[in-house]
Specification:
heterodimer; A: about 110 residues; globular; B: mainly beta; five-stranded antiparallel beta sheet
Amino acid sequence: NAGVTQTPKFQVLKTGQSMTLQCAQDMNHNSMYWYRQDPGMGLRLIYYSASEGTTDKGEVPNGYNVSRLNKREFSLRLESAAPSQTSVYFCAGTVGVGPDEQFFGPGTRLTVL
Amino acid sequence: GQSLEQPSEVTAVEGAIVQINCTYQTSGFYGLSWYQQHDGGAPTFLSYNGLDGLEETGRFSSFLSRSDSYGYLLLQELQMKDSASYFCAVSLNGAGNNRKLIWGLGTSLAVNP
């Protein structure tokens, strides 16, 4: 099993460009999450999906959109990248209804110039 | 608002015991989780407390007091590989059964020989 995978691992964008971060899991997760982590900071929730077909905003949703394509895949889109979105992005999933034991992907390191 | 407080840095020596505290002020508290993150890596789940008391998993233990809005992670027989950041995270009730995690800023643990 691959667990939770994220692509790409690294990305450099120019201000105003768009891109989609991909996340896929083969752990039968019901709930999936997108976080960003800035240097020396904890994780901040961007969006989450409690089940296939549903998405909800987290703490910092502005500038992002998500799509829960099916149970396995949960993508994060930046429509018009800004330097403030330079961060490490983590996707995570959990099997149960609750969020507590989350399994994380390796992260995407995004730089916006 | 929601807030979690934990020390920013802790230093200890190999073989010692260290306790990392976490106090929280949140609404809709459901449980307290602990995660470990090595530099450049993704967070990994360590433990969860939904009820008051102590949970033990090998060298790691976690404690929760809901009445005091307080918990801690206890690491025993410290090893060099335990040098990492440790995050506490609170589960909040969301809409319906949608729960999500709010994260502390993390405690950087340095284990010295």
